Amino acid sequence: MPVMLAPVGSIALFDPDGALTCARAAEKAGIAAFVGTVSSPSLEVVSAGCDAPLFFQLYLTDVRQRTEALVRRAEDAGYKGICLTVDSAVYGRRERDIHNRFRPREREKPNVAGISTKDSDLFRAGASWEDLEWLCEATQLPVMVKGIMNPDDAALAVAHGASAIYVSNHGGRQLDHNAATLEVLPEIVAAVAGRVEVLADGGVMRGTDVLKMLALGARAVLIGRLMAWGLAAGGESGLVRALEILREEILVNMANVGVSTVHDLSPDFLRPTLPPLQQPWPINLRGNATV
Question: Which residue out of 99, 160, 170, 177 is catalytically annotated?
Fold first, then answer.
């Protein structure tokens, strides 16, 4: 199934075993899971507790030795790759959390125990392409870049050593009025021009959502919110069931559009829609034309 479990730092809020529960569900579904820098339990505990392919999502720190130490831990624990996040220069002003007095950053972070979690440390505004080059040279693992929303940035990431491009707007929580990932995905796929794989997330809740992104050129999609809902509903079994439903939806929808493999999908299967204000004839609630 061309679906992976996205990195979610606060995943332990939805299940006591957090990233480990997700990894176990991924193993049962035959898919890969991402483990976050600020998630729990530790990256070693997750890898020791499952056989699913794992990728480690990495935030750069101000000290390269600290970043390299995290990478070495991922290598030693058998992770398949590093996922460098670049869309969180500073922690977004998340007004819903402020209104609810919810402070998700004030929790245990075993992967970065003893390291300051201030913006200047984990969400490095001064990151550069040189940092990406350094990271690619510092590890034998492939490095994907997460948070790309611009085709020029995608091309530059590939030029500086990225092994994959991960299109993401961080759940839409970092920058107001940012584009949806689905809107920019075709441009990024064109800019990459087949040199590396392209992954994407953002609002994937149904099988049709998966097929849309695949049709626009993504090799696989990642789910975050749907993963959290599955965990909240029923822990590991709830997430496994959510993945089963998603798989069924993908297969049923593929059959109904007339394809037997995801490789047959293309933009020809999609039709763009206009926002309501651009519709040619505004209508009222009774369906009558209005002036």
Answer: 170
The residue written with tokens 């209104």 in the block is 99
* Gap between the Cα atoms of 286 and 265, Å rounded: 38
CATH number of the CATH domain containing 79: 3.20.20.70
Q: How far apart are CA 252 and CA 160, in angstroms?
A: 40
Query: Among this protein's residues, is 177 annotated catalytic?
Result: no
Flag whether 283 is in a domain. no
* DSSP states of 228-273: HHHHHHHHHHHHHHHHHHHHHHHHHHHHHHT-SSGGG--GGG----
Question: Domain tally for the chain?
Answer: 1
Evaluate whether residue 56 is within a structural domain: yes
CA-angle at 234, arms to 99 and 58, nearest 5°: 60
Q: Please say if the pLDDT value at position 117 is more than 80.
A: no
C-alpha torsion sign, points 34, 38, 40, 44: positive
Q: For position 4, what pLDDT does the model report? A: 98
Evaluate whether residue 288 is within a structural domain. Answer: no
b or e along 221-244 (b: 16 or more beta carbons within 10 Å of the residue's beta carbon)?
bbbbebbbbbbeeebbebbbebbe
Instruction: Say what the pLDDT of residue 173 is.
Output: 77
pLDDT tens, residue by residue, 133-175? 999 999 999 999 999 999 999 999 999 999 999 999 988 778 8
Whole-number CA gyration radius for the chain: 20
DSSP 285: T
Which range of residues forms the domain containing residue 160? Answer: 3-278
Mean pLDDT of the chain: 90
What pLDDT is attached to residue 116? 60
